[in-house]
User: What shape does this take?
Amino acid sequence: MKKGILSSIIILLFAGFVFYTGYASIKVPSASYGILVSKTSGVYPKLIENGKFCWRWEFLIPRNSKLYIFSDTPRHFKQAFNGELPSASIYSSLIKGNPDFSYSFDFEFYLKIESENLISVFKTENFKSDEDLYSYLENVSLKISRDLSQKLIEMNENTVIASYNVPEIIQSLDLEKKYSPVLLKDVYIKKANVPDLRLYNIARSSYDKFQSVVDEKLSEYASAHAEKIIADENSVKKLTKIGEMLKQYPELNALLSNGSTADVLKALNDLK
Assistant: This one.
């Protein structure tokens, strides 16, 4: 009888061990998801959640399985985007007061990946940790900040806008689709400094006209001096040829020093 009780206890302990080892849900913290990857089965096609019963036999094989944990909480990012309009310093120098054509924006984002898309992103991006997911979302927030900055500059081209309807801007840029499967939970524009685009366009137009005048004057100068440049080039060539002939025929030196003008001219003409 004692042996039977002992056997039952051993069986119960073994069953408990097997149950606990394969009980995947208990390994996942609250507000998080687990993705099971095993050598025998690959990526398990369902997320493992705390509070939802899930038992997997893959855990029973030593060193066979690994559970990757990812937080379900939206990630918070702050992004600043600064710069200046093309050739801003050149155009600014043409206007009295040297206006500032630089821009600066500050954004805040709360981003996440919906649970139904987490496994597919896990596979395509080859995540190894929750930090990898964070870096992925951070990179997306940087790209979104660039898109928003460009849009805000365009919106101020003909008029100065004091406030912005962020949901409308996001919808007009179709950011949800562009950066799917990332979910934009919240987006805030904390600062938006946009230069005077009307003044910038005036300066740019003035510079283009100025550059056209300069190009025209340079073209006129080149045409007016083309013949002289060609003549000078021919003279240099002729002098070079004379020098070569003097080296080759030393007797010409005597003509140049003592001979008559006619003799010198005749000798030079023979060089042509």
